[in-house]
Amino acid sequence: MQFNSIDFMIFFPVVLAIYFIIPKKLRSIWLLLASYYFYMSWSAKYALLIGGSTVITYISAIIIGSMSKKEQESEAKEGKHGLKKATLLLCIIINLGILALFKYGNFAIESLNSVLGLLHINLIERRFNFLLPVGISFYTFQALGYIIDVYRDEVEVEKNFIRYALFVSFFPQLVAGPIERSKNLLTQMKNIENIKLFNAKRCTSGAILMVWGLFLKMVIADRVSLLVDNVFGNFRMLGSTELILGAVGFTLQIYCDFASYSTIAIGAARIMGFDLMENFNAPYFARSIKDFWSRWHISLSTWFKDYLYIPLGGNRKGKARKYLNLLIVFLVSGLWHGAAWSFVAWGLIHGLMQIIGELMQKPRAWVRDKMSIKTDCMSYKLMETIVTFSLVTFAWIFFRADSIKDAGLYICRIFARPTPWLITNGGIFNLGLDRVEFNILLIGLVLLLLVDLVRYNKAMTLDAYLFEQNLWFEWFVILGLIAMIFIFGQYGPAFDAKQFIYFQF
Amino acid sequence: MKKSIIRITAFIILLGLMLTGLNKIYSFKYSDGIAQHQVFDEQKKNTVDMLILGSSHAFVNFNNGTLYDEYGITSFNYGASAQYIWNTYFDLKEALKTQKPELIVLDAYGLTFDEEYTEEAKLIKSAYGMKWSKNKYDNIVESFGGENVKTLLWDYGRYHSRYRDLNKGDFIDPYGSLDIYYNWYNDDWKGQYLFYWTNPVEIKDYNDYDKEELLAPRAEEYYRKILKLAKDENIPIAVVVVPYELNHYEMGKYLTAEEISKEYDADFLNANLILDEIGLDETEHFYDPAHMNAKGSAVFSSYMGKYYKEKYNLSDRRNDPKYDSFKRNADYTRQFIKDGEIFTAENMKSVASLLNDSAYMVAVATEGECVTDEDTVGFILGEIGIDSPMSKGIWLVDGGKLMWSSQDGDEKYLMEGGHDFLLTYNSQDEVGDIYFDNNLANHKVANGVSFLIYDKETGIINCMAINSDYEFQIIQ
Questions:
Q1: How many Cα atoms sit within 13 Å of A44 on the Cβ side?
Q2: ipTM score
Q3: Which residues of B touch A474 (CB under 8 A)?
Q4: Which of A73, A304, A366, B408 has the maximal Cβ count within 10 Å?
């Protein structure tokens, strides 16, 4: 069930009500049952996969944990260490294997067939005939993060299976993140029985975040998607203005869609007494690609940094190796996002942009110096932000397009078919959003801009900022957002409910 | 803790008020189905003696005003257009919560449908006007055969996106309309649609037809449920086929329905077979092949009222103040029919005298080269109450009395019945403009006379003109 569905509107209050009143000892079990119910509402049989992943990583952690203990106690460390590593590797291989099979199986077959097709060899005809389990990339990484942390002796082994299973399957962040760390969420779950649930401020904070998340999804993301789908679906017939609008639209759509899920997840978890990690921090205010990745999908980028980039050597083995490591991380990141070469291309572009950005640091500094360009002023920062936004939007074209070829054609047409008159003659209102819908979208974007500005300048989320204001303003904003969701939200039979983009990851 | 509870409670109250307000604004305001249900709920308990159920055949053709005027019968037309019989069943259950009628009249048209389930749009009309209850839930769930019936259960999810369609009726005056085609609603409305216009029909004679057609299983199931429910409640039920251009297939269904009605001691009358006896004229009394016009509904209801009154000894509620709303509705309906006579006249001369009435405020303006010296024009104006007018100009008459003319000044503004009226005259160009609610009402003809007629009793405004270039033909 999606967060913006009637089912969730019934599910969450019921789960919450029972959670608040049952004996403390039963809280974990109740949330675990609720989480599996939530997951099985997508597809009951795939609960076996998440269950299997949970059991495998749980047992592996216990084995690794016991070996660590023996390692410390005995002098024969090498043997134990070898076994530890083998257990870890086996666990990783099994989990990634399941992920690879379900997510990349058909992609691998298609790619192999493409290559063999050049040699006129038709080797594999059958494709795997199953749906991608929702959230598999997320919970797999979350579980792997835990096992690696155990291996590194950074966290204690979790022997309580219920608690561990809840950590892997916790429903607010199960299907689209944030990808939690055992050091954060599992530690909080150990303390579940001591959480004081009836905390008005915490619950209000969580509720505000959920409202804001629903606003991002239902008023902005689902609305702009009407334009984006139309433009990307017909890009061969469109010109520069429409294509740029479509690209910018997707930039906004993916942010609002993804951030909405994370925000609702954080809000829901907060009401239940858990603090999930931040996943987005005003990413489109970033002033460089590197800065962007410190603000976008933070849980994934830090996961890759801690569990891939650093183990590969990070920046400790010279510049060339650093750049290679960066490329590997971004290629894998691209692949994580989707089983298609266009996602890999997207990842590659970001990797290259980071590398180029670093390589260009000195030349840029030289130019700034020679031309006496001030850097500590609004105009320079604004320019950096706009350039970064443009580069990110450029890369998103590859993410959204059906193929690398389509992305290339899309970009070529922006330059080959200028249509600036559409901005003034009303032509932009024929792209899927008429004038009224455009205006609603603009109002939504203004609100988004304001909230992200507060985030960027004051490092405050909406709930924290509202708590600092007078009560009338706080209520005015919340009621206003709710009203806008009810009136302008894309829901109900007249509109297709838009899948959260990141669900198929 | 106490402070938190107070704050949360206050917020929830505010939120509730806001959502209730939004729901009220955005809800569908169809006067087909939805309005009937909502207005029915406002009726005083146990004041409806004749409950008329079914499709538009029921709610257009039964004239509540005539039934009251001639027989003192208090009736309510409770249905929705092209309503399926199972929706009618749930309507009956709903109605019986607050009313114990002396007679249920069931329009049989819904028995002719072969479909298994109700389509979305019709279900919205049949169900969304009901208050939330188990009956409404059953009505929706049992009627809708499609997937995702739960999406229909939440009304607001259906109409929240109406923001671009909102108009005056969504904020105030929910069923009022300036459109003369739809302005049958009044504060004491009893569910009838009234049409002014006439279009001849041709109703075949099925008096010798005897080939029965089976009812669709679901239709029969719910037909029997309705008849049984009436019997269980000890309320007489009369099934009627209202005159319309039916075909032989439908006729066959009615024959079967008649046989079934006998099992429940229910009266069954196919009025198509006794048109002459009723006094209906196919060229004068119909609006379209399935519905009578206002005049026709009065003739039909006069007959049916007598028929049911004699058969069921229905109460005469005239002079009983408890039933005053039915009297007021009857007054409105009568006046509405009178408006219809004027608004559908082919010749202004024949109806001009009707405007010389306290109910009417009339603004008149000459157009182009037409002058009042013209015999026809002078006659019409004289009948309205404008004597010895200047050759060209603009006049305002209220209840047959001249209130203002362009001789008195260049401009006249007044507010009447919540409407703004503005009359302006340019004496140099000899051009007059008539505005109501910022709408220009005249200049429909190049040469002639324009009329804005406002009925203060019905609230209906109509703009007409006579064209002096075409023998003073009326232009709507």
A1: 0
A2: 0.82
A3: none
A4: A304
A214: which chain B residues are within 8 Å (Cβ-Cβ)? none
Query: Which residue matches tokens 């989707």?
Result: A338
Which single residue is written with the structure tokens 């192999």? A112
Q: Which residues of B touch A489 (CB under 8 A)?
A: 160
Q: Which residues lie below 8 Å from residue A162, measured CB to CB, with a gap of 6+?
A: A28, A29, A32
Q: In angstroms, rounded to a whole number, what is the distance separating the alpha carbons of residues A463 and A202?
A: 10
Q: Which of A169, A160, A168 is nearest to A191 (CA)?
A: A160
Q: pLDDT tens per residue, chain A (505 residues)?
A: 888 888 898 999 999 999 999 999 999 999 999 999 999 988 888 888 899 999 999 999 999 988 877 666 665 555 556 788 888 999 999 999 988 888 888 777 777 777 777 777 666 666 666 667 788 889 999 999 999 999 998 999 999 999 999 999 999 999 888 999 999 999 999 999 999 888 889 999 999 999 999 999 999 999 999 999 999 999 999 999 999 999 999 999 999 999 999 999 999 999 999 999 999 999 999 999 999 999 999 999 999 999 999 999 888 888 899 999 999 999 999 988 888 889 999 999 999 999 999 999 999 999 989 999 888 999 999 999 999 999 999 999 999 999 999 999 999 999 999 999 998 998 999 999 999 999 999 999 999 999 999 999 999 999 999 999 999 999 999 999 999 999 999 876 653 334 344 444 4
**Residue B185 half-sphere exposure toward CB, CA atoms < 13 A:** 18
Q: Which of A243, A228, A246, A248 is nearest to A419 (CA)?
A: A243
Give the closest of B14, B22, B150 to A6, CB-based: B150
- Residues 6 or more apart in contact with residue B245 via CB below 8 angstroms: B201, B202, B203, B204, B289, B290
Q: For the segment B200-222, what is each residue's pLDDT rounded down to a tens digit? A: 999 999 999 999 999 999 999 99
Q: At what angle do helices B120-127 and B134-143 cross, to 10 degrees?
A: 160
Report the candidate in B107, B105, B110, B134 with the shortest Cα–Cα distance to residue B122. Answer: B110
Residues of A annotated catalytic, as ranges: 337
Instruction: Identify the burial level of A492 via C-beta atoms within 10 angstroms of its C-beta, where 0-12 means exposed, 13-18 middle and 19 or more buried.
Output: middle
CB contact under 8 A, B22 and A494: no
List the structure tokens of B387. Answer: 């004597």
The DSSP-derived string for A9-75 is: HHHHHHHHHHHHHS-GGGHHHHHHHHHHHHHHTT-GGGHHHHHHHHHHHHHHHHHHHHHHHHHHH-S
Which is it for the CA torsion A443, A448, A449, A454, positive or negative? Answer: positive
DSSP β-bridge partners for residue B426? B431
Contact A260, A405 (CB under 8 A): no
Residue B91: which of B149, B142, B130 has the closest Cα? B130
Token pair for residue A470? 């007078």
> Tokens in use for A491?
């829901």
Integer Cα distance of B1 and B9 in angstroms: 12
Which of B7, B15, B158 is closest, CB to CB, to A493? B158
Say if CB B362 and CB B454 are below 8 A apart: yes
Interacting residues of B172 by C-beta distance below 8 A, sequence separation 6+: none
**Six-digit token pair at A482?**
């709710």
Contact A479 B7 (CB under 8 A): no
For B119, counting Cβ atoms within 10 Å of its Cβ (0-12 exposed, 13-18 middle, 19+ buried), the class is middle
Interchain CB contact of A48 with B (< 8 Å)? no
Please name the residue of chain B whose CA is at the shortest distance from the CA of residue A435.
B164
Query: pTM for the full model?
Result: 0.84
